[in-house]
């Protein structure tokens, strides 16, 4: 299906290893499904709320048990934070993983349901600005097992939606993504 997409931006977007500098209005015609078009627009809109878009990966059918999402990258040297969002739509995020490098350096873990953020969980942040990392999210029946640099970090239970409801993975903020993959265990 061909969709016309119009947008106006004034920042740089990293999408599938390509860099796009956007400083004016654009129109594009894309041969994608409506779901992919919607999530691309969601990602472009989301960048204005939280810094640059490092990567947005659209999913047609969500995850299933035993999927492994791997992100290899580097925290920007002057980083304030970055986030990995498992997005359902604009009002619902199944899982929000947000390492912060200001104030008490922590990782914030939460979800968003019907536009409202849920109760946050906090961990000490072992990442440092300028550091390289390998982050793995291993999907189980109704939770993620999270590993950082090969070491188990924690489990995060899907609170409000099943894993197969996820329609995109968005990586935003002060981070560079060098490799991204989704595989079955």
TrEMBL record:
<feature type="transmembrane region" description="Helical">
    <location>
        <begin position="26"/>
        <end position="44"/>
    </location>
</feature>
<dbReference type="GO" id="GO:0001772">
    <property type="term" value="C:immunological synapse"/>
</dbReference>
<dbReference type="GO" id="GO:0045806">
    <property type="term" value="P:negative regulation of endocytosis"/>
</dbReference>
<keyword id="KW-0430">Lectin</keyword>
<keyword id="KW-0472">Membrane</keyword>
<dbReference type="GO" id="GO:0005737">
    <property type="term" value="C:cytoplasm"/>
</dbReference>
<dbReference type="GO" id="GO:0090280">
    <property type="term" value="P:positive regulation of calcium ion import"/>
</dbReference>
<dbReference type="GO" id="GO:0050918">
    <property type="term" value="P:positive chemotaxis"/>
</dbReference>
<dbReference type="Pfam" id="PF00337">
    <property type="entry name" value="Gal-bind_lectin"/>
</dbReference>
<feature type="domain" description="Galectin">
    <location>
        <begin position="55"/>
        <end position="183"/>
    </location>
</feature>
<dbReference type="GO" id="GO:0002548">
    <property type="term" value="P:monocyte chemotaxis"/>
</dbReference>
<dbReference type="GO" id="GO:0043236">
    <property type="term" value="F:laminin binding"/>
</dbReference>
<dbReference type="GO" id="GO:0030593">
    <property type="term" value="P:neutrophil chemotaxis"/>
</dbReference>
<dbReference type="InterPro" id="IPR013320">
    <property type="entry name" value="ConA-like_dom_sf"/>
</dbReference>
<keyword id="KW-1133">Transmembrane helix</keyword>
<dbReference type="GO" id="GO:0005634">
    <property type="term" value="C:nucleus"/>
</dbReference>
<dbReference type="GO" id="GO:0019863">
    <property type="term" value="F:IgE binding"/>
</dbReference>
<dbReference type="InterPro" id="IPR044156">
    <property type="entry name" value="Galectin-like"/>
</dbReference>
<dbReference type="InterPro" id="IPR001079">
    <property type="entry name" value="Galectin_CRD"/>
</dbReference>
<protein>
    <recommendedName>
        <fullName>Galectin</fullName>
    </recommendedName>
</protein>
<dbReference type="GO" id="GO:2001237">
    <property type="term" value="P:negative regulation of extrinsic apoptotic signaling pathway"/>
</dbReference>
<dbReference type="GO" id="GO:0005615">
    <property type="term" value="C:extracellular space"/>
</dbReference>
<dbReference type="GO" id="GO:0048245">
    <property type="term" value="P:eosinophil chemotaxis"/>
</dbReference>
<dbReference type="GO" id="GO:0048030">
    <property type="term" value="F:disaccharide binding"/>
</dbReference>
<keyword id="KW-0812">Transmembrane</keyword>
<dbReference type="GO" id="GO:0048246">
    <property type="term" value="P:macrophage chemotaxis"/>
</dbReference>
């Amino acid at each position: 299906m061909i969709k016309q997409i119009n947008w106006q931006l004034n920042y740089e977007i990293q999408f599938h290893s390509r860099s796009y500098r956007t400083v004016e209005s654009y129109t594009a015609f894309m041969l994608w499904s409506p779901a992919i078009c919607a999530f691309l627009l969601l990602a472009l809109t989301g960048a204005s709320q939280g810094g640059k878009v490092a990567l947005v990966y659209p999913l047609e059918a969500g995850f299933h048990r035993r999927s492994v999402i791997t992100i290899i990258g580097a925290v920007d040297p002057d980083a304030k934070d970055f986030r990995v969002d498992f997005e359902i739509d604009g009002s619902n995020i199944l899982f929000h993983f947000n390492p912060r490098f200001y104030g008490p350096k922590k990782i914030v873990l939460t979800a968003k349901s019907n536009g409202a953020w849920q109760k946050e969980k906090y961990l000490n942040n072992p990442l440092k600005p300028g550091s390289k990392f390998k982050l793995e999210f291993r999907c189980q029946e109704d939770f993620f097992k999270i590993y950082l640099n090969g070491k188990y970090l924690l489990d995060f239970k899907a609170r409000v939606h099943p894993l197969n409801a996820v329609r995109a993975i968005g990586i935003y903020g002060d981070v560079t993504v060098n490799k991204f993959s989704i595989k079955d265990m």
